[in-house]
Design brief:
The protein is built from 19 helices and 24 strands. It has 670 residues and is of the alpha+beta class. It has 4 domains: 169 residues, Immunoglobulin-like, CATH 2.60.40; 92 residues, Immunoglobulin-like (Sandwich), CATH 2.60.40; 270 residues, no CATH class; 108 residues, 3-Layer(aba) Sandwich (Glutaredoxin). Strand 23 and strand 24 form a beta hairpin.
Length: 670
């Protein structure tokens, strides 16, 4: 019966055979026909037959890998050997919470066929196709198609233009080698790939369940190549190639689609500055870190310690340096371990955890209570003799060094960005060495004051002023704790602030009980220590329950837009100059720069007068897209300020310590 219907259909359309397009199968959603690229058949000579779909507005059908949902079209030619469909590049279409790969408007889906001998005698081509069209709902459709193609010398048909347009839409074989790392980092290498040529790129896998289709693909471009941070799905196999379509958009807005077959392997490391230069930058960065606002409270503690020892505390200087070095090396190890586990991390990464921030809040508050005289750390050891008390003091210097590094990590000093980025891109031994050199830079002023006789004579003599200064220095600690409570509010919302405040009460109670019982006899003293320990344990219990909540990132200034790679690409494609500010709620340097250099009336007026778009990215929780942008510009921490001139000019990375004058002078060059 089916063959009879096809024969009738062929007879009806015989008069239109010269058009080489079958009768349509139509619905209000799509019109489907079958077309050929030749007007005659010849035995043993392949030619192309295609399913032509013309979809109504808003409707679409799917690619060979439909993505998170959908079914690809199928085309079968009877009595013929045929190839797979030659698929043009699809579009990425978000359908609610899922991402699909599909076609809208008109699409041609051709196969290459060689007809069997019996069919060649009649010239009859019979085909069956089925496809799924979707809009708000999805409707499966199918159709049988027939046309007659005479036997003779092949010549181009009237549909040649359709096939030519299709061929232009098919992705070509990639000229660029590609690698895929076990954590889903796709690296593409080519001499023409750089920040001067590439504005956007995305990858569509050839098979489903290889990557999470709806996840962002942060782009990081450098000279000679770029990376896309893909998010592996359940079907991802790090030991096998990952194939698919790579789309690259250049600064003219032209999109190039290529087929890549990425081989397993980690992305190559970027070219590094000479090792000696990295070490110099690391030392200078650590040295300048002493001037950052994060370290002010610790500088004050060191000043008291120096005064107490008359500038001759060699053992204290060495102990302090040891504490700094141990902590810097520990941070390097933690960063390397975090990255080896597949998580993006950079300088100050621990401050993206509200648990760590709350714990640091309590620690600085406890240090403030100690400086205020609420309790004396280690006072119970004084009865053991002067020698043991001396050891306690050296241990205190060690932990002062440890604390200095921990509270310094929200700040980034000049030279540090290059040193940290280069160190993390180098082998692990070099990474640890870079961090250790930064530690020596941070400790250098204290070591110099404690070790050089000429500098030691400049130190004031010990006296009562030391106790007064010590108590006054508690207030920078309280101020730092208050700032960290605000950081918690950005990361964990109101519930995080409440938990942190409750912990402060418990820590304060523990310090008070410990202090009032320190001078008592053995039994009351042990009771006070036990009560203090219970209070601290209760605080730690609260600490374990603090978690990041899906609250908004730190609010941008009224003149700033939220940074996304897509928004930056759109602004640059439109020829506008763009100022990008990468910041974080826990970065004191960032906040100071915004207050004194960016969010000022003069700068806002200059932005408006020159048509500068201001994009602000919040790295408080280490957004992968911002991490990629940082690495693209040779940084592994914030702040980062990049100015993109109009009409595709080269980006300009601005100083990390920003002033209003510096920014206005740069804007004046537009």
């Amino acid at each position: 019966m089916k063959r009879l219907l096809l024969a009738v259909l062929m007879a009806v359309t015989a008069t239109a055979a010269h058009a080489l397009e079958s009768a349509p199968v139509s619905s209000r959603r799509a019109v489907a026909t079958v077309v050929t690229d030749v007007d005659t058949m010849q035995p043993g000579t392949p030619f192309r037959v295609a399913l032509r779909l013309r979809m109504a507005d808003g409707w679409h059908t799917y690619w060979k890998n439909p993505g998170d949902a959908g079914v690809p079209p199928e085309l079968t030619i009877e009595s013929a050997s045929q190839s797979a469909i030659d698929w043009p590049t699809p579009r990425r279409i978000a359908e609610g919470p899922v991402m699909t790969y599909a076609y809208t408007g008109e699409v041609l889906l051709p196969v290459t066929v060689t007809m069997q001998a019996g069919t060649m005698k009649t010239g009859a081509i019979m085909a069956h196709a089925q496809w799924l069209v979707c809009k708000d709902i999805c409707v499966p459709e199918e159709g049988d198609f027939a046309l007659t193609l005479p036997v003779g010398t092949p010549a181009p048909s009237a549909q040649t233009g359709l096939f030519a347009a299709h061929d232009r839409a098919v992705p070509r074989t990639s000229p660029w080698p590609a690698r895929i790392s076990p954590d889903g980092m796709l690296f593409v290498q080519g001499p023409e790939l750089s920040t001067a040529t590439i504005t956007d790129a995305w990858f569509i896998p050839g098979q489903g369940d290889r990557i999470q289709d709806d996840a962002a693909q942060p782009l990081s471009v450098r000279t000679g190549g770029f990376t896309l941070a893909l998010k592996p799905a359940h079907g991802f196999d790090p030991s096998k190639n990952l194939g698919g379509v790579l789309s690259v958009r250049d600064r003219s807005g032209l999109q190039t689609d290529v087929v890549v077959d990425a081989v397993p392997g980690p992305p190559p490391s970027p070219a590094m500055p000479p090792l000696g230069q990295i070490m110099v930058f690391a030392f200078l960065g650590g040295l300048i870190l002493n001037l950052m606002p994060c370290v002010f409270p610790i500088l004050a503690m060191k000043a008291v310690a120096l005064a107490r020892h008359g500038g001759r505390g060699h053992a204290h200087a060495l102990s302090y340096t040891a504490g700094v070095l141990v902590t810097f090396v520990g941070l390097a190890g933690a960063l390397l371990a975090t990255r080896a586990a597949g998580t993006a991390a950079g300088w100050g990464f621990q401050f993206s955890s509200p648990v760590f921030v709350a714990g640091m809040t309590w620690l600085l508050f406890a240090v403030g209570l100690n400086l205020s005289g609420v309790f004396e750390a280690g006072a119970s050891l004084t009865g053991a003799g002067g020698e043991l008390a001396g050891r306690k003091g050296v241990a205190g210097s060690f932990f002062t060094g440890l604390l200095a590094v921990l509270v310094a990590t929200p700040c980034t000093a000049p030279f540090m960005g290059v040193a940290v980025a280069a160190g993390l891109a180098a082998p692990p031994v070099v990474t640890v060495l870079v961090f250790a050199i930064m530690g020596l830079g941070l400790a250098a002023p204290y070591v110099a004051l404690a070790s050089l006789p000429g500098l030691a004579r400049l130190m004031p003599r010990p006296g009562r002023w030391m106790e007064i200064l010590k108590q006054a220095l508690a207030f920078p600690m309280y101020g730092a704790a208050a700032w960290l409570v605000w950081v918690v509010s950005q990361e964990a919302g109101p519930s995080g602030v409440l938990a942190t405040a409750a912990g402060l009460v418990l820590v304060g109670f523990a310090g008070w009980v410990f202090g009032v019982t320190q001078a008592a006899s053995a039994q009351p003293r042990r009771f006070g220590q036990a009560v203090a320990a219970v209070a601290v344990m209760a605080a730690l219990t609260i600490l374990s329950g603090i978690s990041a909540e899906p609250v908004g990132a730190a609010e941008a200034t009224s003149s700033a837009e939220t940074y996304t790679p897509e928004r930056l690409a759109a602004l640059r494609a439109g020829g506008r100059p763009v100022f990008v500010n990468m910041t974080a709620a826990w970065c004191v340097t960032c906040l100071v720069n915004e207050r004194v250099a960016i969010d000022t009336g003069a700068v806002r007026q200059a932005f408006a007068a020159n048509g500068v778009a201001y994009l602000k990215g919040d790295w408080t929780r280490q957004d992968p897209a911002i991490t990629a942008f940082l690495r693209q510009n040779g940084r592994d921490g914030v702040p980062l300020y990049v100015f993109f001139p109009a009409r595709g000019g080269q980006p300009d990375v601005m100083p990390q310590i920003l002033t209003e004058g510096t920014l206005l002078r740069r804007l004046a060059t537009l």
